[in-house]
């Protein structure tokens, strides 16, 4: 059978399963029949700039696309304006090619939330949440529409080939930050996820049978030195997150983040964790921080990428333990970072 035809046929079947199972009322959408082995992801896409990366993304034949935030640059309290920007993104020819063959899920960050570096005080967060879920094609019955905050989870595959993707909302409940000399001051006691989301996350991790857990949030989990937004601006919340991983002991955690207009891979092993946690930051689908040539990150593995980029996560299920390959790629599918590991 022709390989292209096989891929198109498989994609159609996968979309059918996605549509059929995404109407569940519980905390997650379950795609038990679909083994997932190749995921593409990225963030920071201005609807009004050229979008040259959709073609190389499709060259990698992903089975799923995950938005990591700043999916459009809304920056408004006018929901008509925000909707127009989402509509413009959906009309992009390259993005339409992707959505015609690849299921899409995702979470927001600040600009698509509605305000730069915004948090819980953004007055249109309820309305904005529904517009983002409309953009993602979440059905009216989706549990993500029924609670405050845009968090949610998805399960793919079954048995020893099961993946759980957990999308965390780092905006809706996040308390404020103050800035001094261009750098955020740590909020030692502030809320980041909110108690309802924390409780939900613990339930998602406790007793999970998934072989791999992919946890995504708009802002970076692991890096500490950089002066912009990050989990480390809320040190108690960051510690609570890694302590929760140690407590619940989920198999095979990989973190995904965006926001920074750079790409990089970080690796960190919390005390009490039996294996290191890997994080892939992929940011800059339409614009990147080309002037960022030397930012410190003691956890970085490989190069800092300051060009347009997207991420690819591939899982080899044929090995005794799942073998994971994480890549950061760019224009013309150029490979910037390539790391392999197993759990």
UniProtKB/TrEMBL annotation:
EC number: 3.1.3.1
Record-linked SUPFAM superfamilies: Metallo-dependent phosphatases
UniProt-listed InterPro entries: Metallo-depent_PP-like, PhoD-like_MPP, PhoD-like_sf
Molecular function as annotated in GO: alkaline phosphatase activity
Pfam families membership: PhoD (PF09423)
Signal peptide: none
Top class in the EC scheme: hydrolase
Key words of the record: Hydrolase
Residue intervals of the PhoD-like phosphatase metallophosphatase domain: 68-295
Designated name of the protein: Alkaline phosphatase D family protein
């Amino acid at each position: 059978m022709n390989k292209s035809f096989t891929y198109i046929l498989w994609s159609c079947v996968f979309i059918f399963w996605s549509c059929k199972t995404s109407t569940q009322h519980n905390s997650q959408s379950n795609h038990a029949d679909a083994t997932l082995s190749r995921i593409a992801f990225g963030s920071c896409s201005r609807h009004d700039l050229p979008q040259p990366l959709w073609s190389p993304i499709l060259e990698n034949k992903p089975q799923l696309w995950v938005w990591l935030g700043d999916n459009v640059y809304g920056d408004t309290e006018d929901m008509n304006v925000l909707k127009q920007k989402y509509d413009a993104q959906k009309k992009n020819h390259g993005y339409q090619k992707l959505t015609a063959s690849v299921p899409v899920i995702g979470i927001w960050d600040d600009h698509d939330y509605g305000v730069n570096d915004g948090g819980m005080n953004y007055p249109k967060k309820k309305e904005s949440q529904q517009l983002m879920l409309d953009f993602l094609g979440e059905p009216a019955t989706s549990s993500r529409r029924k609670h405050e905050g845009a968090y949610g989870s998805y399960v793919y595959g079954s048995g020893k080939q099961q993946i759980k993707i957990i999308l965390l909302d780092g905006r809706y409940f996040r308390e404020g930050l103050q800035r001094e000399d261009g750098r955020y001051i740590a909020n030692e006691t502030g809320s980041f996820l909110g108690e309802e989301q924390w409780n939900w996350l613990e339930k998602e991790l406790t007793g999970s049978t998934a072989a791999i857990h992919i946890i995504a949030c708009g802002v970076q989990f692991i890096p500490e030195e950089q002066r912009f937004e990050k989990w480390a601006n809320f040190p108690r919340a960051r510690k609570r997150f890694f302590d929760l991983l140690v407590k619940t002991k989920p198999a095979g955690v990989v973190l995904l983040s965006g926001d920074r207009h750079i790409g990089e891979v970080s690796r960190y092993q919390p005390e009490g964790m039996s294996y290191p946690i890997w994080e892939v930051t992929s940011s800059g689908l339409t614009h990147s921080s080309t002037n960022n040539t030397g930012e410190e990150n003691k956890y970085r593995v490989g190069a800092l990428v300051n060009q347009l980029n997207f991420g690819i996560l591939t899982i080899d299920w044929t090995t005794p333990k799942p073998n994971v390959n994480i890549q950061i790629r760019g224009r013309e599918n150029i490979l910037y970072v390539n790391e392999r590991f197993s759990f």
